[in-house]
Amino acid sequence: MKEEKAYKLLALQEGISNNEAKELIDAGLVSARGQKIVVARGMLSDTTTFKVMKIAKPTKIFEDENIIAVNKPPFVISEKVAEMFKFPLLNRLDKETSGVVLLYKNEEFQQKAIKEFANNKVDKTYLAIVRGIVVEDFSVELPITTVKMRSGAFSKIDLSRGKTAITHVSPLMVEGKKSFIKVVIETGRTHQIRCHLAHAGFGVIGDEKYAKNSSKRMYLHSYEISLLGYKFRAPLDRSFSEFGFEIPKEYTK
Q: In this protein, which residues make up the domain named Pseudouridine synthase RsuA/RluA-like (predicted)?
């Protein structure tokens, strides 16, 4: 039995370039034998058959002379959204997180918006599916420090040197040992929701970095952002119903 690097085998199967195959694997979109392929250069049997997950395209929610609001699907980096719509980013989401991404169209509006973000005057609501049973509201008010690593940013609770981080959680639905929740953040620290929820014992499904679990995707969605008189909502996709949750229509339209 011969072996070859995973990305080369994938490139042959899909009829794409080696670089394109690497990008698919790095994005977490490739699996084989029911397991996600995480190392593009990993050696696999040359008889391996891959399954490649299809990803949706970002869709425009709103546009005027100041701003464009986009619903970003998971597995797409925010910078790709800016490239597609040809305007700079006002905010960013992790690659694995879906939902509202904002682009600005003039510097005057950008400066006003930056002040709103800096002064915590931007309302941000997320939806998530987490492990564990959440039956009552709770808040996590623990400071966070973020360090840069080769694998990307990593945040941790740091009582002595961390920056203020405040996360409010409300239960919406429970199915088995998983909960569908609403999360409102007063601050916007890197990976704040993922870090706080994991610390509270309710790790986000699919969050490999903080919750140490894998899934088809990370079930965290930026549902609503309000700033400077604007309010934008990004409806959930069908993936949030995969664990048996009957998601209310208000969150899907």
A: 82-199
Predicted confidence (pLDDT) per residue in 150-159, tens digit: 778 999 999 9
**DSSP readout, 106-168?**
SHHHHHHHHHHHHTT--EEEEEEEEES---S-EEEE--EEEEEETTEEEEEE-TTTPBP-EEE
**Does residue 126 contact residue 183 with C-beta atoms inside 8 Å?**
yes
**What is the Cα–Cα distance from 210 to 138, expressed in whole angstroms?**
19
* Interval 167-206: pLDDT, tens: 999 999 999 999 999 999 999 999 999 999 999 999 999 9
Structure tokens at 49: 């058959």
Q: Model-level pTM?
A: 0.86
Helices (H), 73-106: 78-85
59-245 CATH = 3.30.2350.10
For the chain, the structural domain boundaries read 3-52, 59-245
Judge whether 193 and 220 are in contact, CB under 8 Å: yes
